[in-house]
Amino acid sequence: MMKSPVRIKRVYEAPSDTDGLRVFIDRLWPRGVSKGAFEYDLWCKDLAPSPALRAWFGHKPEHWDGFRRDYDAELRDERAQARMGEVFAAAEGRRITLVFGAKDPEHNHALILADAMNDYARRHRLA
After folding, report:
1. PANTHER family per the record (predicted)?
2. Do the Cβ atoms of 98 and 65 come closer than 8 Å?
3. CA distance 105 to 111
4. Tens of pLDDT along 42-68?
5. DSSP E strands: which ranges in the chain?
6. By percentage, how much of the chain surpasses pLDDT 70?
7. What are the φ/ψ torsions at residue 110 (nearest 5 degrees)?
8. Which terminus of the chain has fewer Cβ atoms in its 10 Å neighbourhood, N or C?
9. What is the phi/psi pair of residue 11, to 5°?
10. The model's pTM
């Protein structure tokens, strides 16, 4: 398998043949996207940040370090780890593309989740 089996892509970018398993990772449906036009294989609301953490972060870059720390802690939870395993099983060895709606390319939960999932893949020898 490839070194980093998980990558990220914005909801508004067109799907491609190299996406593999497309996993939508937001709790809320993206603005301006019709249900019929959006292509994804799984919707993993449970891997998104908790509602309280998302509200606190508010996409404010000055909250980024605290958000990253707290979201990473949420992703180390037993349920989150089990869900990551389910996503890798569903991918059946294909690449996983985490699809998200945030506008900021440098301060969003998809970056943190991709790192956590790539770490999961290394620890479980999936990569």
Report:
1. CYTOPLASMIC PROTEIN, CYTOPLASMIC PROTEIN-RELATED
2. no
3. 9
4. 999 999 999 999 999 999 999 999 999
5. 6-10, 21-24, 42-43, 96-100
6. 97
7. -60, -35
8. N
9. -55, -35
10. 0.94
Environment class of residue 59 by beta-carbon count within 10 Å: exposed (0-12), middle (13-18) or buried (19+)? middle
DSSP line for 52-81:
HHHHHHTT-GGGHHHHHHHHHHHHTSHHHH
The residue to which tokens 């720390």 are assigned: 69
**First-to-last CA distance in the chain?**
5
> What pLDDT, in 10s, does the model give residues 86-109?
999 999 999 999 999 999 989 999
Tokens, residue 84: 């990551």
pLDDT at 126: 86
Stronger pLDDT, 78 or 127, i.e. the higher one: 78
Cβ(100)–Cβ(110) below 8 Å:
yes
Q: How many other β-carbons are positioned within 10 Å of the β-carbon of residue 78?
A: 7
> Which tokens sit at 30?
């993206």
